[in-house]
Design a protein that fits this description.
The protein is mostly beta strands. Helices cover 0% and strands 59% of the residues. It contains no helices and seven strands. It starts with a strand and ends in an 8-residue tail after the last strand.
Length: 90
């Protein structure tokens, strides 16, 4: 609780989600192959939150997932895409 000038109140800290455990499978793919990209998203804040995770490949959006996370919650995010260009993707 915070008190100032006779007023009192509480506050909660909002944090950005934490992404960890990135997995790309298969690690190498040919044009037309299906590729699965996954990671865990965690809410380490003090309040529940809604988060949007956008998958970008070479700066182009290839998927979007909305996630509602409770306090101290972790859940997987999974994207399935098809490799449509030759070369290294990042």
């Amino acid at each position: 609780m915070i008190r100032t000038d006779g007023l009192a109140g509480t506050f909660s800290i909002l944090t950005h989600p934490v992404l960890a455990g990135l997995v790309i499978s298969p690690a190498q793919a040919q044009v037309g192959d299906r590729v699965t990209i996954s990671a865990d998203i965690s809410n380490e804040g003090e309040v529940p939150g809604n988060y949007t995770v956008v998958l970008k490949v070479n700066g182009i959006s290839r998927g979007k997932e909305n996630s509602e996370l409770g306090l101290d919650t972790t859940r997987p995010i999974v994207f399935d895409i098809t490799k449509d260009n030759p070369g290294t993707q990042c």
